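Page 42, continued from yesterday. The earlier attempt failed because a stray header line got pasted into the input along with the sequence. Redoing it now with the clean sequence only.
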Amino acid sequence: MLTYKLGYPEILKGFPVTPYISRYLPPFDEFEVDHCDLPTGKSTVFPAISGPSVYLVIEGKGKLETGSSQLLVNGGDILFVPAHIEIHVTGESDVMKLYRGGVSSRFFQTL
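This time it went through. Structure tokens are written below.
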């Protein structure tokens, strides 16, 4: 059953996970969102998590690497990443903006 709450939605404030990644945790356990702004030549790591993720490249271009493969990505690309895969990202444009949506880490803490 759906429940409704009248009023404006809460605007979430993310918290830093790394110098380039902020995490947004909605008030439910189904998913979480990471936002990454990566300058040219800088790198960051999205650690492996227990569930699958979808990566959305919003702007710019860069390189995504796992232990076994490398992929060049551009704004507009969408990628599915299975569970337990660490992703290394390197920006190759002025700013590379991307989001990762995945199962909330809170969900796995309750199992």
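Notes: The mean pLDDT is 90.
Reminder to self: strip header lines before submitting.
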